[in-house]
Amino acid sequence: MSVNVDNAKKALDSIIKKSRVHLYKPIQIAEILYHHRTNPQLNIKLSDLETYRNPSKKWRDIICMQFLGRISTSSAKFQDNLFEENAIPPHVLKILGNENQKSGVVEAYIYKAFEDKHLQLESALNYCLKSNKDTFDIKEFLGQFWEQPGLKRSLDKIFEIVVYSLFEVLTTAIDVKVDIYYNNENLNILKEFSSFAEKVLNLNSKNNRKTLDAHFNRVGVTNAADRGLDMYANFGSVVQIKHLSLDEELAENVVTSVTSDKIIIVCKDSEESIINSLLTQIGWRSRIQAIITIDELVEWYEKALKGKYSNILGERIISTLSTEIKTEFPSVGNDDFQKFKEQRDYQKMSSE
Q1: What is the domain-level CATH number for residue 141?
Q2: Alpha-carbon distance 155 to 143, whole Å?
Q3: Which among 135, 138, 150, 235 is placed 20 to 30 Å from 53, CA to CA?
Q4: Is residue 266 part of a domain?
């Protein structure tokens, strides 16, 4: 291999290594190369970015929807970073295209990396999917993601699922209720804005009170640049989840990115002095409702799975974990990818 090809492969490997398990950017490269190789009528010129910049996002999204059940929600600028000099610029892509043209070997290499990451992820997630309340160990489950480099990029979503499953099951098991009502002295304002009251508040002049079941909700798929919420409750609390040790800078980033005055921060760990400092500082103590560390989560999980009420809580938590994992990572346990490889003859190609 020439030096140019070596450098191009290193650039590709760097993009793959930096990618989360979804591999949006590497898949986009693979689909550009695939369409360049198999669809000459498209007149793709790898040295000319404008011949594939926008179409390649659609090609990528088709594959991602098929195997991931989602598409990239990153900004257009973040997505286009793929073609900058420190990633895969057109002149590097052209070198990869020359290597790929005959047999699709670069495409196969990328999709092999995708498969490897998902097999590693599947092995870790199957620990949860095959466990029950007596065998599941939350520290062992999370430990797989903290300790294996290939899984660390998925840790944020896994940690979020772990927190959500516990919070939601405990809240619903306790059967927490939320009362919504208005002051009858303000009935005239409500009548003036009756359509607003009906559509937004679900209240009217004849019905001034509504009782809801309390729930936590995950915000959904976000990209790495987002600084928004991870979870929110319909009784006012919002939750920011960080699989990092908490310090004042991280706490400040959380507090300044969320407008709520009932912020719950869940973090890997933190020194007690920092927690006390954060909860007593003027300006922060009125907004941070609580700081919860992994040690507390482990304690609560142990109680739920093996404690006095494990028969009520245990299997519900495992079931919620499994459901959220399947939703977040739909490719786990999915055989469609093997059919895809066969259709494109990738299984016959060398990944070298």
Answers
A1: 3.40.1350
A2: 10
A3: 150
A4: yes
Q: How many helices (H) and strands (E) does the chain have?
A: 15, 7
61-65, 239-243, 269-273, 296-300: least confident range: 269-273
Closest CA to 16 of 34, 29, 4: 29
Residue pLDDT, tens place only, 172-196: 999 999 999 999 999 999 999 999 9
Taking alpha carbons only, the member of 57, 58, 59, 33 closest to residue 44 is: 33
Percent of the chain with pLDDT over 70: 86
Same domain, 35 and 86: yes
Statement to judge: residues 70 and 35 lie in one domain: yes
Task: Record the tokens describing residue 292, joined without a space.
Answer: 């919860």
The upper half-sphere exposure of residue 181, i.e. CA atoms within 13 Å in the direction of its Cβ, equals: 10
Classify 246 as helix, strand or coil: coil
Q: Could you tell me the residue range of the domain that residue 68 belongs to? A: 3-102
Residues 19 and 154 in one domain: no
CA distance 155 to 160: 8
